[in-house]
């Protein structure tokens, strides 16, 4: 009879484990109620909405659209953007113009 060995994975190194993305750096860990989390999220959204320019990931978060869709629209010329080095920056006016033209 052969013994069946159970294979177990060794825990990943802490630096190699994916970390949680923290939306706000100033989140108070002592606030664990749902209302506090909603208030913090809305504050973060409000502060992000006031910025002049966004990365593609931030623009996707603000608009509720996917990053892939935004990259597609930039590639086809429907969404204007600025290239700063290797980064693509989308200004608030460019987002508003894209959403206005897409809605009509």
General description of the model:
The chain has 104 residues and is mostly helical. It has a domain at 52-103: Orthogonal Bundle (Multidrug-efflux Transporter Regulator, Chain: A, Domain 2). The protein has 4 helices and 3 strands. It has helices at residues 34-49, 56-63, 67-76, 92-103, and strands at residues 53-55, 82-84, 87-91. A 3-stranded antiparallel sheet has the order 1-3-2. A hairpin with a 2-residue loop joins strand 2 and strand 3 (87-91). The chain is globular and about 65 Å long.
CATH topology of one domain: Multidrug-efflux Transporter Regulator, Chain: A, Domain 2
Reading the helices and strands in chain order gives HEHHEEH
- Overall geometry comes to globular
- Helical coverage, percent range: 40-55%
Specify the CATH class of one domain: Mainly Alpha
Largest sheet composition: 3 strands, antiparallel
> How many DSSP E strands?
3
Strand content: 5-15%
Q: Between the first and last Cα atoms, what is the distance in angstroms?
A: 72 Å
User: How many helices in DSSP terms?
Assistant: 4
Instruction: Decide which structural class fits the backbone.
Output: mainly alpha
* Average pLDDT figure: 74
Strand order, largest beta sheet: 1-3-2
Contiguous runs where pLDDT drops below 50 for at least 5 residues:
16-27
Rg from alpha-carbon coordinates: 21 Å
What CATH architecture of one domain do you see?
Answer: Orthogonal Bundle
What would you say about this model in short?
This protein has 104 residues and is mostly helical. The chain has helices spanning 34-49, 56-63, 67-76, 92-103, and strands at 53-55, 82-84, 87-91. Strand 2 (82-84) and strand 3 form a beta hairpin.
